[in-house]
Structures are given as structure tokens and as C-alpha cells.
Amino acid sequence: MKAIWTGSIGFGLVNIPVKVYSAVQDSRLELDMLDAKTHSPIHYKRVSEKSGKEIPWEQIKKGFLLKEEYVILDDSDFEAASPKKTKIIEIEAFVDEHEIDSIYFENPYFLEPAKGGEKAYQLLLKALEKTKKVGLSRFVMRSQEHLSVIRPRENYLLLQQLRFEEELKSPSEIKVPSDVRIAPKELTMALELIKQYSASFDISQYEDEYKKELMKIIKRKATGKKIPQKKLEVVYTKKDDLIDQLKASLNKTSKKRAS
């Protein structure tokens, strides 16, 4: 793995040198975009709006449109905005992780101690494990400030990126009726259905089944075989059918467990 950020964790007056690695990888099938007629790959180019010519990476700058004029920004400008945050993941507070709504969680990153930071790294790891707290922090990576938490996981520290409040849309436009009457019998049966479907969570039991099926189709098409078309028509439950469908669902789970 290649480190995507190097710096340190600010833990009080202690600075722990660390390397940051992405903890996720893309497992999607790599599908190329093709010309429908010739099947030749489609490529995207960085073209100047003014000249129509392709621009090499080294000639590209970032700019902000202000009053119809672009203000050009260099790497030094991004660092000048907050020199400390470009070098240090500063822990600002220790909080209980359960207080953070899961809607705020984003990308995870592995934290590895750099040379000289091994002992301080282990100290922070053990202290977080003992207190069951996470370190709320902020830092700058790729010219963007990130809110994050540092938390213990197994025998290492994990940096979990968070969304800022301003990044979330308001649910005020979502229409959820509050005057719908739920009969006690309907609720009882729904609770029983949840109970029958309840299980311990084990992420290893879940795989990308859609990707597997799509790969089967790709291999069949490669051999010239015809692909049978599967159609699914979803019939929505009407309010008068709710009890009957809950009963059928309970019977289905009961038979499944018995077999």
C-alpha cells in the first residue's frame, strides 16, 4: 500500500508521526465506455474551452471564479490557509462514538505509526480502548478540510472521515404522513416478523451477488450464448392486504427455519 498522507496526530502536547492509507478498495467491475458502432473505447480529454486544445496536467491550475474573474490558487495558498492542519491531525475533543449519528460517517483510513512514533501510537490506542472514546479531529488533505474521528480497531488506529453538518441536505421536503393509523394487530405481527428475521450481524456473510451474476452474463455473451431475460414486477401492498401479507411472511419464515 502507498501512503496518501503523512504528518502527525496531535494528542495534547504529544505529536505522533503517522502515515495514512486508504482502508477501502473498489471491487466494481471495470466497464469501459465504447462507441456503439465501432466498439472502440471512449476517452476523456482535458480540453481548453477557449482554444479547444488538450491541456497537459502540468499546465493545469486551480481557480475560483470571483466577480467574473478567476483567482488562481497555488499549492502554497492551500497550505497558507491552515499550515497546522496540513501537517497535523489535531484531536480537539474525546467523545463517545455512539453520540455520532451514522449519517455523518464517510471514508475510513488506516493509521500507521511512522519511525519514532511507535510508543506514543500504542499509548493513544490503549487509552482509547480503555476509555471507549474516539478522538474528534480535523485535518487538511488534497486541499480539503476533513472532520474525522480516530478510533481503535483490533490492534491499530482507524481514521474515520466525517461529513460536516453543512454537507447534509435538510429532510424538510420529505413527505412522511403522520396521520396514518396503525392497528395494534398489525404492529404486533410486524414485531413478530422482525423477531423471526433477527440475526447476529456478520459482514463476511454478505458479498456482491449482483457483480457475480453480471460476470456470468458477460462470460455467456462472450461464448455467443443467448441471455434469458428475467422480469420482475413488484406488486405493492395495499392497506387492505397488509394483515394477510404479514401472515404469509410469518408463515414463510417459519417454514424456512423448519427446513
Automatic annotation (TrEMBL):
Transmembrane segments: none annotated. GO terms for molecular function: double-stranded DNA binding. Keywords: DNA damage, DNA recombination, DNA repair, DNA-binding. InterPro entries: DNA_bd_Ku70/Ku80 (IPR006164), Prok_Ku (IPR009187), SPOC-like_C_dom_sf (IPR016194). Residues 52-179 form the Ku domain. One of its GO terms (biological process) is double-strand break repair via nonhomologous end joining. With LigD forms a non-homologous end joining (NHEJ) DNA repair enzyme, which repairs dsDNA breaks with reduced fidelity. Binds linear dsDNA with 5'- and 3'- overhangs but not closed circular dsDNA nor ssDNA. Recruits and stimulates the ligase activity of LigD. Homodimer. Interacts with LigD. Belongs to the prokaryotic Ku family. NCBIfam families: Ku_bact. This is Non-homologous end joining protein Ku. It comes from Candidatus Opimibacter skivensis. The lineage of its organism: Bacteria, Pseudomonadati, Bacteroidota, Saprospiria, Saprospirales.
